[in-house]
Design brief:
The complex is a heterodimer of chains A (487) and B (151). Helix content of chain A is 62%, strand content 4%. With 487 residues, chain A is mainly alpha-helical. In chain A, helix 3 packs antiparallel against helix 9, helix 5 packs antiparallel against helix 6 and helix 15 runs parallel beside helix 16. Chain A starts with 10 loop residues before the first helix and ends with a helix. Chain B has one domain: 3-layer Sandwich (Rieske Iron-sulfur Protein). Chain B has a four-stranded antiparallel β-sheet, with no helix packed on it. In chain B, strands 1-10-9 form a three-stranded antiparallel β-sheet, with no helix packed on it. In chain B, a hairpin with a 2-residue loop joins strand 9 and strand 10. Chain B is globular, with a radius of gyration of 18 Å. The mean pLDDT of chain B is 90. The chains are: A mainly alpha (487), B alpha+beta (151). The interface between A and B is medium-sized, with 35 and 26 residues.
């Protein structure tokens, strides 16, 4: 990190600085840090994520002063925070909606990195540290969601911990170890509370490493080309502190609207029912920021060879993030920014659409029908033949098994009532449902990273010429309208 | 090696504690359960279904060819001789741990899991949907004709 031009005038500050140069470190990071002069608003989201983390820690620490991590008391203690603790409602709604805002800005931050190639050399370690932060955030958010001990809390904890039972051989042992018992219960709640308090501070640690790794090569920029000299840069303060402050204003407005006008819009009403281990709510849905991963998990309804569907779903779900660690080596194009990569740019937007689509699929019941192609004649024929075999010896009488009218005759001969046959026709349809859409989108997600990026795009894409330098590109766009006006 | 040994207590403390292990059996009175009905008792924090099956339910379960099942198990293996009407099983879906609804639900007159759509038959065996295994049968014994101890 650049210590830059930090020259304290105050003697006491100088005395301290000689013994612990932390002020020059902060000055180099937040004031003098030379940033590319062309950063756009998509670069706001990193600092917003940092602010969201601080907000979560501040509200979380004070909530922990009132919350009780015990199964019989947790739900009531949260209600007490909402009703009796001074400003408890505000702190809790800030914490719950702050988590959503944190994920929102982090997802934008990640997609910005994908679009502008910020994961490429020399920023691979920076990218991977960011992914570590994402994984820690997910673990923290999941455990935090369990703490209010409502129905969704309890069943989210049950379903997610049960994912580990898909691990061959040791699965059940691992799940029991996670639970500290034979089901999600007191030991589970208490350890989740402990870890929910710990992990955010680990995140702070990794964020410091993330910023450190950022300041070695410096920020990427919308052109994706290297900084060539001081003419390409401006100091972080006041240029980007001002720009980030404007973004923060927007962020706070959105958070304020959520907290003050629609505080439960992103939550699930079932979480205001105390946890009941004996009854599962009819529709279990995770928080919105986990929906795409939930859709990937559910997309695997079939076994592949010896690997059961359940394990496949779990592997794919974790794999969807783990493969991002290999992204710097999957995408070998030397051009960073999608601005100059016509093919990658299109596939990037498809990836965004697939990710949002997966979120939508995850929010819907898996058997919701999207397209109905009418009665499934083959399946109905099978059922009719089975009904015939159950009541008679020998094969079903020959007839027209290709049409519903023919099948109806055989069904009646098999002893099936007209009404049962109608029910069968109504039930057995060829459909395209949410699971099918989830499968298609999951396929695209993995196809994008594992096939398109490493194998197809390098063959078909011809990147556009890169500008000479950041300064040249910026001054050209500035100069062009002026020149046009002058003519 | 020494480091691994020193690490073990920090890992093993998360396993069920002695008092948790001690809470491992539950007794139930079967006399109020009419044929076709089910009661749910709590055992190790989980629901256990105790079902008094009708003749029809038992016949349905026994008519199924065992080889055709995903987790092949005959109906006889899942009940105690002399108590064939009593089906006792952990009411936790083997997919991801939700509590199925039933009996007389789903496509096989048994249990249906609302979370991800697994169907179980009248012997609690998986027939359709994502779950890999039949509903688990816990260890239990009849302490009297109408009393059972689970665990």
């Amino acid at each position: 990190m650049s210590t830059g031009s930090f020259q304290p005038k105050n003697r006491a500050v100088r005395w301290f600085e000689e013994r612990l140069p932390i002020l020059s470190l902060l000055h180099g990071t937040l004031v003098a840090y030379p940033a590319p002069r062309n950063l756009n608003y998509w670069w706001n989201f990193g600092s917003l994520a940092g602010i969201a983390l601080v907000l979560q820690i501040l509200t979380g620490v004070v909530l922990a002063m009132h919350y009780i991590p015990a199964t019989g008391l947790a739900f009531d203690s949260v209600e007490r925070i909402m009703r009796d603790v001074n400003y408890g409602w505000l702190l809790r709604y800030l914490h719950a909606n702050g988590a959503s805002m944190f994920f929102l800005v982090v997802y934008v931050h990640i997609f910005r990195g994908l679009y502008y190639g910020s994961y490429k050399a020399p920023r691979e370690v920076l990218w991977m540290l960011g992914l570590v932060i994402l994984l820690l955030m997910m673990a923290t958010a999941f455990m935090g969601y369990v703490l209010p001990w409502g129905q969704m809390s309890f069943w989210a904890a049950t379903v997610i911990t049960n994912l580990f039972s898909a691990i061959p051989v040791f699965g059940d042992e691992i799940v029991r170890w996670l639970w500290g018992g034979f089901s999600v219960d007191q030991p589970t709640l208490q350890r989740f509370f402990s870890l929910h308090y710990l992990l955010p501070f680990l995140i702070v640690g990794v964020v410091i490493l993330h910023i450190w790794a950022l300041h070695i090569p410096g920020s990427n920029n919308p052109l994706g080309i290297d900084v060539k000299g001081p003419q390409d840069q401006v100091p972080f303060h006041p240029y980007y502190t001002a720009k980030d402050a404007f973004g923060l204003g927007i962020f706070l407005i959105v958070l304020g609207v959520l907290v003050f006008y629609m505080p439960d819009a992103l939550g699930h009403p079932d979480n205001y029912i105390p946890a009941n281990p004996m009854v599962t709510p009819p529709h279990i849905v995770p928080e919105w920021y986990f929906l795409p991963f939930y859709a990937i998990l559910r997309a695997f309804t079939f076994d592949i060879g010896p690997i059961p569907a359940k394990l496949l779903g779990v592997i794919a779900m974790f794999g969807s993030i783990l493969l991002l660690f290999f992204l710097p080596w999957l995408d070998r194009s030397p051009v960073r920014s999608a601005t100059f990569r016509p093919v990658y740019k299109k596939t990037f937007w498809l990836l965004v659409a697939a990710s949002i689509g997966l979120g939508w699929v995850g929010a819907n019941p898996p058997d919701r029908v999207l397209v109905d192609f009418g009665p499934d004649v083959d399946a109905i024929a099978d059922q009719v033949a089975a009904a015939y075999a159950a009541n008679h010896d020998g094969a079903a009488p020959a007839g027209d098994v290709e049409s519903l009218a023919g099948l109806r005759e055989i069904a009646v001969a098999a002893g099936m009532s007209e009404r049962d046959f109608e029910t069968l026709v109504a039930e057995e349809h060829v459909t395209f449902d949410m699971v099918h859409l989830g499968q298609l989108l999951t396929l695209y997600y993995f196809f994008h990273f594992l096939i398109l990026l490493p194998f197809i795009i390098p063959r078909v894409e011809r990147p556009r010429p890169l500008p000479e330098s950041i300064a040249a590109a910026v001054l050209k766009t500035k100069a062009a309208p002026a020149a046009a006006a002058a003519q | 090696m020494g480091a691994a040994v020193a690490l073990w207590p920090f890992i093993d403390q998360m396993n069920p504690a002695a008092d948790t292990l001690a809470l491992s059996s539950t007794e139930a009175d079967l006399s109020p359960v009419a044929p076709g009905q089910q009661i749910v008792v709590k055992w190790r924090g989980k629901p256990v279904f105790i079902v008094n099956r009708t003749k029809h339910m038992i016949e349905e379960a026994r008519a199924v060819p065992v080889d055709s099942l995903r987790d092949p198990q005959s109906d006889e293996e899942r009940v105690k001789p002399g108590h064939e009407n009593w089906l006792i099983m952990v009411g936790v879906c083997t997919h991801l741990g939700c509590v199925p609804i039933g009996p007389h639900e789903g496509s096989y007159d048994g249990w249906f899991c609302p979370c991800h759509g697994s169907h179980y038959d009248t012997a609690g065996r998986i027939r359709k949907g994502p779950a890999p295994k039949n509903l688990a049968v816990p260890d239990y014994e009849f302490t009297a004709p109408d009393r059972v101890r689970i665990g």
